[in-house]
Design brief:
globular, 2 strands, Rna Polymerase Sigma Factor, Chain: A, mainly alpha, Arc Repressor Mutant, subunit A, about 60% helix, two-stranded antiparallel sheet, about 190 residues
Length: about 190
């Protein structure tokens, strides 16, 4: 395996857009996404002497960005209340047997093909942007970043049952949004 060398003068050109798009999905705010990418490049410049070449330059930069994004969430958590409130209730109704009313649509799609669908990705991003700040943050950490429920509960000092309810509501809001903005077009 050949050792990878860094080319800091090409980072913005080679990785800037990728890092920005990755971050924007997670933080929802273009200014914050731009700032996190800049902070990532600065941190990489400061620590480039520690790069051992065991990964690609791109992987190394994304690793730094993931840490900077988590730092952002940690610092911002004090400004977001993660308690469940009445305004967070989803509008999904259940009958006496616990079934959704109306029942969810049958999507009849192949998950692999859906993952490659650019229109679906765009609608999903728009639907995620429609989530409240706390639902968006928790959904990203759990479903996109892959943090465990235990890590999220510890980080945000919430009980597992509250986390489960908030994630359930976020998923239901995303389902409803996708069904009305994408599935209806298919």
């Amino acid at each position: 395996m050949s050792e990878e060398t860094l080319e800091p003068d090409k980072w913005v050109e080679n990785y800037g857009d990728m890092l920005y798009r990755y971050t924007l999905v997670r933080v929802k705010d273009p200014d914050i996404a731009d700032e996190l990418v800049q902070v990532t490049f600065f941190a990489a410049l400061k620590s480039q002497h520690t790069f051992a070449g065991k990964s690609t330059e791109k992987t190394w930069l994304f690793g730094i960005l993931k840490h900077k994004t988590m730092d952002h969430f940690r610092n911002a958590k004090k400004n977001v209340t993660l308690d469940i409130s009445e305004s967070d209730t989803d509008h999904i109704q259940f009958d006496t047997n616990g079934h959704m009313m109306p029942p969810p649509n049958n999507w009849n799609l192949n998950p692999e093909k859906a993952a490659e669908n650019n229109e679906l990705a765009q609608v999903l991003a728009e639907c995620m942007n429609g989530l409240s700040e706390k639902f968006h943050r928790l959904f990203v950490l759990k479903e996109i970043e892959g943090l465990s429920s235990e890590e999220i509960c510890k980080e945000f000092n919430v009980k597992p049952t509250n986390l489960w309810v908030m994630l359930h509501r976020a998923r239901n809001q995303l389902k409803t949004c996708l069904e009305s903005n994408w599935l209806s077009k298919e």
